Amino acid sequence: MSTAETRLSDLAPVEEPGHAPPTPAPRRPRRGIVAVVSALVLVVAYGLYQHYAGTAPAGAAQYLTATVDRGSIEQAVSATGTVNPVKIVQVGTYVSGPIIALDVDFNSPVTKGQRVAKIDPASFTVKVRQAEAAVVNARARVDKDRADLALKRLLLERNRTLLGQKLVAQNDVDTAKSNYDQAVAQLALDEAVTAQEQANLEEAQVNLRYTDILSPVDGVVVSRNVDVGQTVAASFQTPTLFLIAEDLTKMQVDTNVSESDVGRVEVGQPATFTVDAYPGKRFRGTVAQVRNAPIVVQNVVTYDVVTAVDNPDQELKPGMTANVAIVTARRDGVLRVSTRALRFRPDETAAEKPEAGRGSVYVLDGDDLRRVEIETGIQDAQHVEVLKGELHEGDRVVTGVRREVSSTPPPQLPGFAGGGRRFR
């Protein structure tokens, strides 16, 4: 055996017969130590990150500017409304009964006096015949009264003659006179009854004619609310059977304008509007009426502003929703500045309430800002008219601030970059 082998054998443990090998001592838990170390490392890393991020250059402030120029400004009042025909007629019925015929339908053109529907005339025909018979009866009574009156007149004259000859008593003359006067009154009464019966006949004839429902105007049927066989009752309220638009080539937009804007709206102002049926297409009209009657909905007061518009191609349909812009003022070739420049303030905490018709902007001269007080006129969504102030065409006014964050990343600690060791 070699010397190396002897030394190795000396180091090998020798097991005595009948004894088990000694049990190794248990290892102490390390999870608590690992958690504490991990927390300390994270705190140190966060502190270093905050230090480097705080000391990293943030970049200089850059101002957003807009150039003062000359152009057009159009001030408008925006509102929503509904497209309606200029004149729409409700066609009803004066008499009651079942519908036996319909001569028109939706979108049917009609002329004035044209029959559009018919109510069953049977009961009205019977009433006409009854009224005619009553008139004939009344006239016969009048003829009888006239014959009786002639007889009473003859008897009165005869008794007067006999009284002059002392052949009859005065009482006979008085009786004849009374009978004559009664005959005159009876004739007048029956003539009045005849006139009343004649009026009843005419009423029955009118009601019979009303069974033919006629169009009162030239136009187009917009709505039909009855069908054949349906019974209409006109006892308490006249039912609406048809809606007829007189002329669909002339339309109007009934717009609800808020009370804060209605003071700027006047008759004759131009207006434009769009409808959902034709995206991107603008229709033009003119304010025709500003109605004084208020419309109150949930304590919100609006006024109906009527805009007249031509509809030669009949693209606009009744009931369409319109988004209307009424031009209340327009200026061409005026000095104008961006509306955002009036809202910009270098110190964002400075509260400033601008006065009506006045404001201030900041002009960029190199790296310096110069405040300029101006007097303003009309404005639209993008520009404000400049009436007075030390502001000239070509000046650059500040509209905002843009800050650039440094692109240099903070240093990363070993073990916290992507792919570093993770503790569990």
Task: Please describe what this structure looks like.
This protein is an alpha+beta fold. Among the domains are: 63-71 and 333-403, conserved putative lor/sdh protein from methanococcus maripaludis s2 fold; 77-85 and 248-331, Efflux pump adaptor protein, beta barrel domain (Elongation Factor Tu (Ef-tu), domain 3, Beta Barrel); 121-210, Helix hairpin bin (Helix Hairpins, Orthogonal Bundle). It has five helices and 19 strands. The chain has helices at residues 3-11, 31-55, 122-164, 170-209, 339-343, and strands spanning 61-67, 69-85, 88-92, 97-102, 109-110, 115-119, 212-214, 219-224, 231-232, 240-245, 250-258, 270-275, 283-297, 300-310, 321-338, 358-365, 368-379, 383-389, 396-403. The strands form four sheets. The protein has a six-stranded antiparallel barrel. Strands 3-10-8-5 form a four-stranded antiparallel sheet, with no helix packed on it. β17 (368-379) and β18 (383-389) form a beta hairpin. α3 (122-164) runs antiparallel to α4. The longest helix has 43 residues, at 122-164. The radius of gyration is 52 Å and the shape is elongated.
